[in-house]
Amino acid sequence: MVTRFKIDSKVLDWAISSTDLTADQVEEKIEKFQLVKWKTGEKEPTINQIQAFAKEMHIPFGHLFLKSPPKEDNPALAFRTIENRPAKMSRGFQEVIQRMQTRQEWMKDELIDSGASSLEIVGKFSNERKTDKIADYINAILQFSSLRKIRNIDTFYKSLKSKISQQRIMVMQDGTVNGNTQRSLSTDEVRAFVLIDDYAPLIFLNTQDAKTAKIFSLLHEFVHILRGSDEVLSKERQTEEERFINKVVEKVLMPEVEFRNKFEIEDIDKTSRLFHVSIYAAGIRAKNLNLITQEELNEIMSIPHFVPRTDNNESGGGNYYNTALSKMDPAFMDRIINSYNSRKTSTTEAADLIGVSLKSFKKVITKFQERYN
Fold first, then answer.
1. Is the pTM of this model over 0.70?
2. Fewer CB within 10 A of the end CB, N or C, for the chain?
3. Contacts of 183 (CB under 8 A, 6+ apart)
4. 27: phi > 0 → left, psi -120 to 50 → alpha, else beta; which?
């Protein structure tokens, strides 16, 4: 006899309203799974049908067995979008945040168990109102004098990411919803976000974004950590804080003296490449330094921009193992491997934390050790 389950009609309504599928796709699923009959009780689904429904709707399987819709509060965190912060996070974005929170909590427990102390840099400049002071600190702690000598943008990005990771800040990246290549993470919704914690702060970058945008976002979220400003209580405060942080990043990436000497309005693309920023960032910096007029900035900002899909240099060019490693923070990977080798963490948990299958888990570990040992 096949066991069937009754799903609460309000939970089904929640599933339909919470999915990130389009309206046409939802209608297709309603018809395919005969949801009208599920809601009326005329037909009760099997466990396999519920699993298939949850997978295709991008809904947590366990939530469908609740007696009432789950309460899912959006986490309070700082994140960058192309324009303004969206009013509502998509289902996919929420899943990415939840995965990052799981990694952060695991890392924090590991650090505390090993006797690590909290990080002094978290919130170090929470009350600082001088952008120059924060920029000078970043220049020193991340050794920007050496970074600025790097002309290749890929090398610059990887080196900057490594410098920040060395500060015990996890840097994760992905362009999909937790590795599902059928669910891209839109840059219209999020370019980057930060989860601030005294022990294990985490920065996430959307690899669907342009390399220059990722560089700016990486530093932007690093400043958020220095400021300790993950939660913003009002739109006014948000705007003020974001502008303040952007000014710090501008000063780090485009130092005034050097920028004045090398800025060329006739070839702003060349200027932007020299400083590893977008033409828009270069234009704003030039306007802030009174090198161009507002009209000239408006003209620069009106230039159409192209944002590439997942960066092949970061994804490993289609190699599964290189792609998996490119998404992970090396210090986090190292902790997982040590915990797994000491049998504190099971194979299943370790593979889940990394986001790879059990079948590929040991090969990913081997590839990591070959790269970093």
1. yes
2. N
3. 20, 58, 92, 176, 177
4. alpha
pLDDT in tens, 87-138: 457 778 888 888 899 999 999 999 999 999 999 999 999 999 999 999 999 9
- Residues with Cβ within 8 Å of 151's Cβ and at least 6 positions away in sequence, in order, are none
193, β-bridge pairs? 79, 204
Angle formed by the axes of helices 211-227 and 235-253, nearest 10°: 120
- Token reading at 321: 């193992």
